[in-house]
Amino acid sequence: xxxxxxxxxxxxxxxxxxxxxxxxxxxxxxxxxxxxxxxxxxxxxxxxxxxxxxxxxxxxxxxxxxxxxxxxxxxxxxxxxxxxxxxxxxxxx
Length: 93
Prior knowledge:
Blueprint: H1 9-39, H2 49-78
Family: Belongs to the small Tim family.
Pfam families: zf-Tim10_DDP (PF02953)
InterPro entries: Tim10-like (IPR004217), Tim10-like_dom_sf (IPR035427)
């Protein structure tokens, strides 16, 4: 009989991958919506150079900002005053 307190590692890994996939899909959707609204005045068959440059810059800024926020969140989560356990304190009992 399996111990009720134990979590199947393969199930835990599957859930983590699905959460990552969901975050990625949300990020792509948000990125598409924001950059489209900012850069595309009138949809057509081709992107003009201004729209193309705007979309490229928008994507770069959005990803830079997302990375900055993610890194800052991880840094704050690992700081001793955050209340989150440090890597050396984490256990999967």
